[in-house]
Amino acid sequence: EMEITPVTPSIQAENNEASSSSNSSTDVLYPQTIHLQRIDSVESSVNDIKSKTLSILFILRTLTQTFSPNNL
Known about the structure:
The chain is an all-alpha fold. It has helices spanning 7-22, 25-29, 31-67. Helices cover 81% and strands 0% of the residues. It is rod-shaped, with a radius of gyration of 29 Å. The protein starts with 6 loop residues before the first helix and ends in a 5-residue tail after the last helix.
């Protein structure tokens, strides 16, 4: 039995290496930077949406002012 017990930790280590290599290595090494990049992309897309909605609202307002009988 004493000869079997040293073998099991090495098998567990191999299993851990296999499971960690299944993840992309960059996720393991740089989780913070990836998280920050995702936040940056979300912020930029939110800003894009804001600017587009503002321009659409402005167009709609000018259209309603132009075509409404009693100019708002």
